[in-house]
Amino acid sequence: MDKFVIKGGPALQGEILTSGSKNAALPALAAALLTDEPVTLRRVPRVRDIRTMQRLLVDIGSKAAAKGETLTLHTPAIVSPEAPYELVKTMRASALVLGPLVARARSARVSLPGGCAIGARPINLHLTGLEQLGAAIRQEHGYIEAHAPEGLRGATVHFDRITVTGTEDLMMAAVLARGETELRNAAREPEVVDLAELLNKMGARVEGAGTSTIRMQGVEKLHGAEHTIIPDRIEAGTFLVAGAITRGDLTVTGCNPEHLGALIAKLMQTGAEITRPDPTALRIRVPRPLRSVDVTTEEYPGFATDLQAQYMALMTQAEGIALIVETIFENRFMHALELARMGANIRLDGRQAIVAGPRTLTGAGVIASDLRASASLVLAGLVAKGETVIDRVYHIDRGYEKIEEKLAAAGAQIRRVE
Ligand code: EPU
Asked: For 90-125, b where at least 16 C-beta lie within 10 A, e where not — what string?
């Protein structure tokens, strides 16, 4: 298993390029199941979760051809409409094939995900929604079986709570359903909007993505398309925090600043200066000591839960007390205990973390527990005195493309050891 060895100290300088969004690319790959024609996706990040999804699609019946960041998926027929436990347990986003499979093959068998490091993460809302579209759902032997022998029919689905992949799954189911579907209390994340754009390029009729009501007029058939995935806002946000925590002068290029509004606002309150040298770049400098600022995670356009761990690392270096409230997942503070091993002063109370700073962090051996927790440990390592060794970096490889190379090019002393 690979580890990262980081020597803290250097302020990051120069430019870092953002990759395509993992969480936009995952549903885009699943959407390719909806047509028997080729779908070509550009700017697909080369991360492990994408390789896992690609493997799943190939098992289902897709042919995949990758060239750099471009991936073409062609599914002439659904050979096996199934997502096995072996894949779902390593990546819960595998549940995204449920909607497209029921829509195209009229049946699907998908393993239930089981436990997760950041919270319960059930898929009940995907299932209730599919039932409302006319699928019969059965659970047996740890698997969900969904059948719609006559095809799905449009319906109004009101989500009990906002779910990102639930919204995406239902969109993919509804585009081939008979009649109109309305999704209410839908997720407004940019990844949902990107999926709607791809589906419309494939001939679907989706309206309202980016608002909390999304409408789909079902069509008979979808066709092939070409689409470029949006930049990864969480990766870009992680680099902005890297610039802030090292008090460097860093420009994050190839990003969409519109998608980073909540983080930019927070970072500016902490004392960072952020400018937009061009429409797809953000430059961050921190000319004065950082101040503590409270944060509460929310659905988009609020502050992303996927940036909470990184922000916590930053608050260990800020003057004052920061209250961090996690409202999306019930158990997403695993990084706090590892940060504490490096010298951070963090108190946990249910869904709240209280971070007192600034504290001098010292390098230590730490363990990555999930993707974003690992990113926060990398950030802490960049400012810790001495050497930080992060174990189980396969978590970070799930969602960050060559993070150590990108950070090293900006001056960080980080290397991967096998
Ligand atoms: N929820 C339910 N029932 C459901 C679905 C969700 O109770 O059927 C609950 C969840 O347990 C959670 C909340 O609703 O408490 C929100 O979960 P959501 O469904 O929105 O999360 P997700 O779709 O499984 C996506 C991202 C996550 C990101 C969350 C929240 C992808 C592939 N994953 O997950 O990304 O944290 O939205 O924004 O898009 C990551 O990239 O590190 C990551 C975990």
From this structure: ebbbbbbbbbbbbbbbbbbbbbbbeeeebeebebeb
